[in-house]
UniProtKB/TrEMBL annotation:
Transmembrane found in the keyword field: no
Lineage: Eukaryota, Cryptophyceae, Pyrenomonadales, Geminigeraceae, Guillardia
Transmembrane stretches, start-end: none
PANTHER family according to UniProt: SERINE/THREONINE-PROTEIN KINASE (PTHR24347)
Residue intervals of the Protein kinase domain: 12-144
Residues the entry annotates as binding ATP: K41
Native organism: Guillardia theta
One family name in Pfam for this protein: Pkinase
UniProtKB keywords: ATP-binding, Kinase, Nucleotide-binding, Serine/threonine-protein kinase, Transferase
Signal peptide: none
Domain of life from the UniProt record: Eukaryota
Protein name, entry field: Protein kinase domain-containing protein
Gene Ontology molecular function: any one: protein serine/threonine kinase activity
């Protein structure tokens, strides 16, 4: 990637796009030191929808969060055109995806999922964080 932050290029290999947001693309990344797969959110600073204060708030919030049911932020890189957030890769899909695949989703399964989600929300709320876009991911929940 031309112009990519030299530190990012040294530490990670950048792979294909795996997701997209209003002013960012999420790419598969590989940490060179240990081969670990990560998600790299590439934020376009030139995008008409880019607001640095929103991105800085997202970064500050993610730095506070340390919970097994919440995505971890590993590294942050910056260059003239982009900001790069290196995060834990979550590949299991959503709980709803899994429920649709299952032939039987019991009350006990629902209670377990709810407990995991509520524990994550409790952690966020204890930090003063209100999340408006909760995506429950299978990899973040140990029940499946």
């Amino acid at each position: 990637m031309f112009g990519m932050d030299a530190g990012l290029r040294k530490d990670y290999d950048m792979g294909p796009a795996i997701g997209e947001g209003s002013f960012s693309i999420v790419r598969l990344g590989i940490r060179r030191s240990n081969g670990e797969n990560v998600a790299i959110k590439v934020i376009d600073k030139k995008s008409i929808k880019f607001k640095d204060n929103v991105v800085q708030r997202e970064i500050a919030t993610m730095k506070l969060v340390d919970h097994p049911n919440c995505v971890m932020l590993y590294d942050i890189y910056d260059d003239s055109k982009h900001k790069y957030l290196v995060m834990e890769l979550v590949t299991g899909g959503t709980v709803m995806d899994r429920v649709v695949e299952m032939t039987h989703f019991t009350e006990k399964d629902a209670a377990t999922v709810t407990t995991h989600v509520l524990r994550a929300l409790e952690h966020l709320h204890a930090l003063g964080i209100t999340h408006r876009d909760i995506k429950v991911c299978i990899d973040q929940l140990s029940m499946f």
